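Q&A log
Question type: sequence-to-structure
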Amino acid sequence: MHPVLKDLIDLLTLERIEDNIFRGASRDIGSAQVFGGQVLGQALSAAHLTVDGRRAHSLHAYFLRRGDMNAPIIYDVDRARDGGSFSVRRVVAIQHGRPIFNLAASFQIPEPGLEHQAEMPRVQGPDGLQDLTEIAPEVLEKIPEKMRRYLTEKRPFEFRPVEPSDFMTAQVRPPQKYVWIKAVDSLPDNQALHQNLLAYVSDYELLGTSTLPHGLTFDRSRVMMASLDHALWFHRDFKVDDWLLYSMDSPNSSGARGLSRGQFFTADGTLVASSTQEGLVRVLSDDKSQSIRSDPKRQV
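Response status: OK
Response body:
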């Protein structure tokens, strides 16, 4: 298996401390704090470890505090309910004795039912599109160093945007984005693993969709962004080592918050999952921007 993908699977494979308590490590991917998708994926992984014979169908989460990349994260799972068809788990992620993240996840015994779905957008397929990391050198040298590392870091997923990303031009665009996503190597046929990995990757690119109508450049030194909450629904089985189209749009931005929605489609048009996220999008004055750069652990 590709070493970067194996490292991610190892990251989502938690150490069991007690029946309902687990411990996970962190990775620095170039973001200002622990990547939100990492905590989502690990929390769902912890919940999965307390459920048998049922599939996750939804999760709802709140990001409470910045995660410390240099400290382990403890996941405390509350087995809130085990009914005839559904199970509910509440998960609290803890660092330095304080909660940094809350998640509620629901699981269901697979059963047949009524079927309908939204139509997949008619966009170009992944063949022939460039990966997000394929950036011209003359553009890279103009991007701040930390953002440059975030963009060029080897990732466990390929990201092929349908429209090339313009990191430096203050261009006003409609609040929608389409990105083809696929794991960089084949994976075991384990639906819980694929769900954990999709939770991880669902945090990429989503919140940024809400900034598109406002002509912000990729130099985010004057823009403070942070995920506030995240929801994910699993509709049908899928494989993240096959191409998935992440179709994203943003219906609203107000009150220094942006709301974004996403849908995951297989290459043949099957809708397999949906997501929503609200996040802080705060445009700062130069004085406030300098204050945050000098104190990167400042809380939202």
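Response note: The chain has one domain: 3-110+125-294.
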